[in-house]
Amino acid sequence: MTCYRDHFIQVPDGLSLHVREYGGENPGIPVVCLPGLTRNLLDFEDLALILSKPLWNRRVISISSRGRGLSGRDPDPSRYTIPVEAMDVIAVLDHMNIERAAFIGTSRGGLILHVLAMTHLTRIERAVLNDIGPVLELEGLRQIQAYLGGRATPTDFDDAARILQRVHGHEFTDLTDEDWRCMARALYRKTDGKIVADYDPEIARQFRTADLSQPLPALWPQFDLLAEKPLLVVRGEHSRLLSRETVKEMAAHKPDLAIVEAQGQGHAPLLHLGPLPEQIGSFLG
Questions:
Q1: Which DSSP string corresponds to 200-228?
Q2: Which residues does 88 contact at the CB level (< 8 Å), separation at least 6?
Q3: How many angstroms separate the CA atoms of 88 and 13, rounded?
Q4: Which of 17, 57, 59, 96 gives the lowest tally of CB atoms within 10 Å of its CB?
């Protein structure tokens, strides 16, 4: 039985975004999920299915940003930017007549939320920041850069799962073989008989060529705006991108910040594992 409905929504510059809606008839403020740099809406599939059914009974909407998953590839790669992707989110909300939503932002998705706090704060009811904050550690950024620059080409999905486990297993110590297979199915697709990463290669190229010789500017002014709303931050126990020190500083800026550490996970935690669905569901209300 299909538990979701797919939409392909055209944003103002003509690109089509893949949007998946779970529990479309459920009442209340919807939950909008925004994935990371090279990820897509499948990152949230298991969590969305949990949240859209009793006990939580939420309407959940996951968005694949431009160039990811089944969303259109941008003919102008210079538009693969966080501000453009933030405006895409607003276009999706407007198309679906959503005035206000709770958000879950993983990594880059959480940076999009920092931009939306500046431009459309009233559209945010509350937010979950998954392994992201106003300060990005250079070690974590360089780790992502190196991974994108040295990706092996898998022969099939089982091989893709083995590659993922070999590269990330030291951080994701609690994942089972089935978890790695599910991750592979979310990150790769079969095209012309080949298993390929499911995003526009231009996105990885831009990140690989980014200058990481100096720390990136911190986003504390944007975070302080976002902190006007109820916030939950999820940090991977072994994350190199979001430090415990940054989380402590976030709590100093927002004393009622809810904090969860995803045990046995790195960047970025899979939100359907362990106690995370219950913790996120309780925060969302």
A1: -HHHHHHHHTS--SSPPPP-HHHHHHHTT
A2: 11, 15, 17, 63, 65, 66
A3: 9
A4: 57
Residue 73 and residue 200 in contact, taking contact as beta carbons nearer than 8 Å? yes
Q: Are 144 and 164 in contact (CB under 8 A)?
A: no
**Do you know the residue count of the chain?**
285
Q: What is the pLDDT of residues 129-159, one digit of tens each?
A: 999 999 999 999 999 988 887 677 899 999 9
Closest CA to 102 of 3, 226, 224: 226
What are the residues facing 19 on neighbouring strands?
7, 63
The encoded tokens of residue 60 equal 């959940």
Question: Which residues, listed in sequence order, are joined to residue 7 by a DSSP beta bridge?
Answer: 19
The single-letter code of the amino acid at 217 is P
Please tell me whether residue 258 adopts helix, strand or coil conformation: strand
Half-sphere exposure of 155 (CA within 13 A, CB side): 2
Full-prediction pTM beyond 0.85?
yes
User: 182-232, pLDDT tens digit by residue?
Assistant: 999 999 999 888 999 999 999 999 999 889 989 899 999 999 999 999 999
For the chain, which domains are there?
4-148+217-284 (3.40.50.1820)
What the block records as the tokens of 241 is: 């991108």
Closest CA to 133 of 284, 280, 285, 268: 268
Residue from 236, 232, 234, 269 nearest 254 by CA: 232
Q: Which of 271, 275, 279 is nearest to 49 (CA)?
A: 271
Spatial CB neighbours of 67, under 8 Å, sequence gap ≥ 6: 73, 74, 80, 199, 200, 202, 203
Query: Position of tokens 């620059």?
Result: 149
Give the separation between CA 114 and CA 132, rounded to whole angstroms. Answer: 10
How do 16-22 and 258-262 pair as beta strands? Answer: unpaired
Both structure tokens of 100: 């206000």
Specify the DSSP class assigned to residue 18: E
